[in-house]
Amino acid sequence: MRHIIQRAPIQDDARPSRVRCGSLGKALRLVALCFGLAASLAHAQSFPTKPVTVVVPFPAGSTTDVIIRLAGPRMQQILGQPLIVDNRVGAAGSIGTALVARAPADGYTLLFTSQAHTANSSLYPNLPWDPVKSFAPVLLVGSIPNVFAVRSSEPFKTLEEFIAFAKSKPGQLNYASSGVGTSPHLTTELLKQASAIELTHVPYKSSPEALNALIAGDVAMAPLGIVIAKSQIEAGKVRALAVSSSTRSRVLPNVPPVAESGIPNYDVRPLQAIFAPAGTPRGIVDQLNAAFTKALTSPEIESKLVDLGVELDLRSPQETGKFIQADVDRWSVVIKRAGIRLD
């Protein structure tokens, strides 16, 4: 600290006293900043001294749940403490998310969630948490693209052909999703807006139900999770028209992205991300980011993530924060234009 104060500008007695006070204020702010950084480092150096709980706001067996459980054993090796998964289900992920927002900002309670985090604030009017202000971003893990699929017996072979057919029959075609406000629903609403087509939404309670409706011919199209789509493609029951991401998937490398199908700016990669409560010391956030990055890029874990359809896109806390804000803004516009609202 002496070093910092000695290098502050030397004040001339002839100068007005307000200048001397301003310089003193700058020096004091520097001292405070140093103390803050030192405190953050001290927190990180002693972290963790007990198990870390990761709240998953979805059921056991969901993709989000499977991802974090895969990382658990490796995280324990890295941190020296167990990783406990706590499934807090309800209100489209809001119950578990609210729990973490209220938790102590000490790094011992984390949230691992999906696109619901960035969409729910526009879908539900009175959430007790804010997707940006209530949390400290830890890590953007990656995404799981959706696949726009039709029955194999349908005449259209590409997304362009489906869009042209839909334009010839405005409002007469329908599509299935796993529920109002879910990733498949919003992904298709954005497709409708980007391609200027009219489709009728038919929400089901789950992805398997939506898939069954597609195979039975009850709907013309369905956006499916990439793994379930692959199994049905291989079974010859459905045809994949395009993946929602802007690049091809390693799971379905022969399926073009929407961006190659006449809508160049379309890119939907439903996120998987980890958060801590707002105010968590930066040193702890950085330590958690490094630990999760190391765990998820372990060869044995990364190969299993590929099998789940996860496209790894690991980012720093700062980059994750920017991604989250952009995703919140994007879905806010889509949801408003589509007139979607949940109570």
What does this protein structure show overall?
- The protein is built from twelve helices and eleven strands.
- It has helices at residues 2-6, 17-45, 63-79, 94-101, 116-123, 159-168, 183-195, 207-216, 226-234, 282-296, 299-307, 317-338; strands at residues 52-56, 83-87, 109-113, 135-143, 146-151, 173-177, 199-203, 222-225, 238-243, 271-277, 311-315.
- Helix 7 links the parallel strand 6 (173-177) and strand 7 (199-203).
- The longest helix is centred in the first third of the chain and has 29 residues, at 17-45.
- The termini are far apart.
- InterPro entries: BUG, Bug_dom1.
- Belongs to the UPF0065 (bug) family.
Strand and helix layout:
Blueprint: H1 2-6, H2 17-45, E1 52-56, H3 63-79, E2 83-87, H4 94-101, E3 109-113, H5 116-123, E4 135-143, E5 146-151, H6 159-168, E6 173-177, H7 183-195, E7 199-203, H8 207-216, E8 222-225, H9 226-234, E9 238-243, E10 271-277, H10 282-296, H11 299-307, E11 311-315, H12 317-338
Parallel strand pairs: 1-2, 1-3, 6-7
Antiparallel strand pairs: 3-10, 4-10, 4-11, 5-8, 5-9
Keywords: Signal
Family: Belongs to the UPF0065 (bug) family.
InterPro entries: BUG, Bug_dom1
